[in-house]
Amino acid sequence: MNESAILQNSALRSTEIRRQVLQVFLRANAALSQREIEDSFSDIDRVTLYRTLRTFEEKGIIHQAFDGTDVAKYALCSDHCSEHHHHDDHLHFHCTKCGKTVCIDEYAVPRPSLPGVAAVESAQLVVRGVCAGCGC
Fold first, then answer.
1. Separation CA 61–CA 58 (nearest Å)
2. What is the pLDDT of residue 14?
3. Which of 8, 42, 101, 133 could lock onto 31 through a cystine, CB 3.0 to 4.6 A?
4. Starting from the edge strand earliest in sequence, which strands make up the sheet with 73-76, in order?
5. How much of the chain, in percent, has pLDDT values that exceed 70?
6. pTM score, two decimals?
7. Paired residues of 63 in beta bridges
8. Where are the domains of the chain?
9. 6 φ, ψ to 5°?
10. What pLDDT, on a 0 to 100 scale, did the predictor assign at position 89?
């Protein structure tokens, strides 16, 4: 799916910045920090980028990819996510050598029933290691 179709499916107006940010995600094929996205542009307003990322997250276009670091990273959602309802409880792999984080959709994180807890809202699982690109 291209950036215009993603925006149209999410009922978002197609602006230059939104299309450009989506192009960065589509090319990256990995989770990106706001700084990494900023570095893809020669000149971008940080507030506009922050608002774009927040809108994309609210609309189910991207999700936060927790990788065990203190840096927030974002990745494209699967087609099953929708506005305010993410289905991204999957494994994230974080390479300890290059810092790349990728979503592993094939492995779902189970939502356990916990005593004394009415509802589990999310669960994250991070696997750390060395990616094939950095391996020996």
1. 8
2. 95
3. 101
4. 32-33, 73-76, 62-64
5. 92
6. 0.82
7. 75
8. 3-129
9. -60, -45
10. 75
